[in-house]
């Protein structure tokens, strides 16, 4: 129906074919269909001359003077042969015979109301018919004398009509003509190029004549401007020229629908011919317009039609536009979302079509989102975009298991199972196991890494595990050392809960997941005979695991398993000792040899920390291996400090270490031995002079130095001794001053405290007899003794002081060795 439909019935059609434009990528705004049924039958014998549109029916006038009432599908419902006003839903009728042909008629928009029984007819004059108060019709001439009136449009209280001179507007209320809009191109015959009128609203009139379009606005005149002028006036708010001749106008929101009559010149014959009419949607501006869309319409017999033969009528409620020509009636309507999707699919814009369907799924009637999605997948597959097609399956197929299986088989036929494998559903829905097995076999034949990835990612219950295990075994027969297949087989065994076989493969591969597998599935009973393998793989992790699970694998069992691998045995026992010094006490004797052989730096710390180590055995091993430091420690721990000191001096020749050892032992005999050994060795004497001052009187050493012996740095050593001595004297004097000052301060504080009074009341008791310290009878004489420690006694309750000392002390504080408190107060009455 729209652009670029060929006609091959003559030279004019050939010219039309030559001028066809290529199909535009821009989506059309309207869609078209012919009005058929009864219309087709009418136009086979007659020709359409005019048409009017109602929401519920159509009225079609023909050249033979017939008027047909049609339904919206074009079926004939009624037929009239004379001009009349006839109530379709009432018995009201008006018949009249005119003395000249009637070119146009318009009925009051609210004719059904009793107050609006009016209509106008146009011919050589414009007549207004209205019913009087006696139900008689009377006519009034509104205008005449300017040629035939060929177009009349009535809206609200305004009637607009066009004659040979221009367009007039009449106000039915004020009975005044309020404007005259002259036609622009007077060279055009008004009967061949008639004026097109349409009301956009009650005050906006659109005029199309020739190639000119004007938009007029009816406005109220200000009271101060009226004088003898009409109360309203017209302002042209927009005026522009079109490329072709205007045959009809209709409003569409804030845009215009323009039916244009087109004449073109043939390039071959250089003759002018009638081309297909155009239906354009334009956006009017103040002095120009912007074309939104343009469609060339192939109507029947367009080659013989003139501008006056075309009419454009519209239904305001539904945005339907009727293009009327003598031999055809075409209906144009705004494209809905289904039409938009049709166009996108036609242009192979499947993704946009799918998106549009999803957004407007409640409004689309002819399309289903799933059908569009499947078409999109097929398009991608045909184009070779297998990965995109597979990815789109997730969104489009959703939870439809049957469609998923269908698409998988389709991908299998084109050899692209790998493309769809990452997107297969794994939970909801779950496909048949055969689908997953088919894809796994595909990968197993060509891509071991991809196969391993799927086994890791897919849950084990999606496929028959035993079938896949057997397939992997068959491949391992050809390549038994393939690590990827071995690792995958171990994972399959794990899914199948065959943990023993899985553990064996992991250990063979020295795979990091072996410890996780043991922990996760509590396989400690299976590794009791594989401890050496675990230690060889990762001794740190293995030892930590064994020590963390002593209740499952005992220390004794581990030590026995590692008996032939003493280096691993040492690693285990060393970490056990670090965790707890007492758990492996039965192996401490063995550990001495292990430390001596494999880890000497930790032997001495072990000997120091262990309380279960046999010292004689340790001493024997250390002496055999000539471990001096360890031997010195053992000798000193066994009480043989002299031998230890001798070894330090004779074996290590380290005077500082010897002095440090003597300091630790704090034994005078050791210092004596050290001095005797060092007396003939000047370097040793220097070391002693520098360090002996705080432990032994340096004079003892200095007196023993032989006269004439040359001692390195003697002067510096003697100066240091004197400085140390002076420092000690200063420290003692300083301490003495501090002590005296503190003693004096405390004595003053004690004196102030003892000078303070002590409260004695009825709540206090005698610490001896435990009765109230004050008598209940205040007139009775009493005597109370209060000590500085705040203990109180009746005088008669205290023992008599001894003959040797007249001072009396608190019995309680004296018994608790708190220091005696002398009596501070004696109260008598």
Structural class: alpha+beta
Strand order of the largest sheet: 1-28-27-26
Radius of gyration: 61 Å
CATH architectural designation of the domain at 335-431: Alpha Horseshoe
Strand residue content: 15-25%
Pick out the low-confidence regions. Answer: 1-23
* Residues in helix, %: 25-40%
Largest sheet: 4 strands, antiparallel
Average per-residue pLDDT, rounded, comes to: 81
GO cellular component, one term: early endosome membrane
Family: Belongs to the VPS41 family.
Keywords: Autophagy, Cytoplasm, Cytoplasmic vesicle, Endosome, Golgi apparatus, Lysosome, Membrane, Metal-binding, Protein transport, Transport, Zinc, Zinc-finger
Function: Plays a role in vesicle-mediated protein trafficking to lysosomal compartments including the endocytic membrane transport pathways.
What would your notes on this structure say?
Its main location: cytoplasm. Keywords: Autophagy, Cytoplasm, Cytoplasmic vesicle, Endosome, Golgi apparatus, Lysosome, Membrane, Metal-binding, Protein transport, Transport, Zinc, Zinc-finger. This is Vacuolar protein sorting-associated protein 41 homolog. Plays a role in vesicle-mediated protein trafficking to lysosomal compartments including the endocytic membrane transport pathways. Among the domains are: 335-431, Serine Threonine Protein Phosphatase 5, Tetratricopeptide repeat, CATH 1.25.40; 721-754; 757-802, Herpes Virus-1. Strands 1-28-27-26 form a 4-stranded antiparallel β-sheet, with helices on one face. Strands 2-3-4-5 form a 4-stranded antiparallel β-sheet, with helices on one face. Helix 20 packs parallel to helix 22. With 829 residues, it is an alpha+beta fold. It contains 29 helices and 31 strands.
